Description:
- The chain is an alpha+beta fold.
- The protein has a domain of 73 residues: P-loop containing nucleotide triphosphate hydrolases (Rossmann fold, 3-Layer(aba) Sandwich), CATH 3.40.50.300.
- It is 35% helix and 19% strand.
- The chain has a two-stranded parallel sheet with strand order 1-2. A two-stranded antiparallel ribbon has the order 3-4.
- The termini are far apart.
- The C terminus is likely disordered.
Amino acid sequence: xxxxVGLGHRADYYPDGLSGGQKQRVAIxxxxxxxxxxxxxxxxxxxxxxxxxxxVVELMQKLAKxxxxxxxxxxxxxxxxxxxxxxxxxxxxxxxxxxxxxxSTVESRS
Length: 110
């Protein structure tokens, strides 16, 4: 699984020897190794820059499709919303919007 996330060459490294993006990819590998039906991801891009965050989410999406797995991702990062198959927008614990596109909802709240 480490090979599939591009870290086969880092198998013998300890966490303090990995970058934030590499640690996130290890977390993805750990989550998917047992071929679960669903993975819950809470803010997987929070500690990453824009490019690394996008790379991590695209990798999650690719591996999930290959394994026929659903990923439920919670995020405040609007930069990755275009990757989602479905978006559910919540505010203060209440459902605000449920659908593919949130552009009008997000724009009206900005």
